Amino acid sequence: MQSHTTLKPILIIDDEEMVLGMMSQALATKGYHTDTASSGEDGIVKILSGDYSLVITDIQMPGIQGTELVARIKDTEKGDIPVIGISGTPWRLNEGLFDAVLSKPCPLKTLFASVEHFLSPPPDLDKP
User: Fold this and answer.
1) pTM
2) What fold is seen in the domain 8-118?
3) In angstroms, rounded to a whole number, what is the distance separating the alpha carbons of residues 93 and 71?
4) Which of 8, 43, 63, 72 is 20–30 Å from 79 (CA)?
5) pLDDT tens per residue, the chain (128 residues)?
6) Domains of the chain: which residue ranges?
């Protein structure tokens, strides 16, 4: 089983510095490495030049919003990176662009469960 320390980092994108810090710290308590971007523009640059296991992005941001960001990611060679969107109004999203959408604020238990869902290795079907 792959440990959290051997995974590629998780990129967190949000225009609120406090949210970036809180999410990074929370995920660090579970052994995840994170990187942050404070705008959609910075997020796209980091995704295209870096190597991430998962992206967590705010949806409502100045400039490039989360919906545009995920559409751009999916149209690149990095399009297989799972993207979790976080929104204060998740029920308004019906585009199906995101791999998951969480409400903001998000309970840590829900955040951890979603991250584990996307980063857990698939079961070894060859084992009895």
Assistant:
1) 0.86
2) Rossmann fold (3.40.50)
3) 14
4) 63
5) 344 555 799 999 999 999 999 999 999 999 999 999 999 999 999 999 999 999 999 988 899 988 899 989 888 888 899 999 998 776 666 567 889 989 888 899 999 999 999 997 655 555 55
6) 8-118
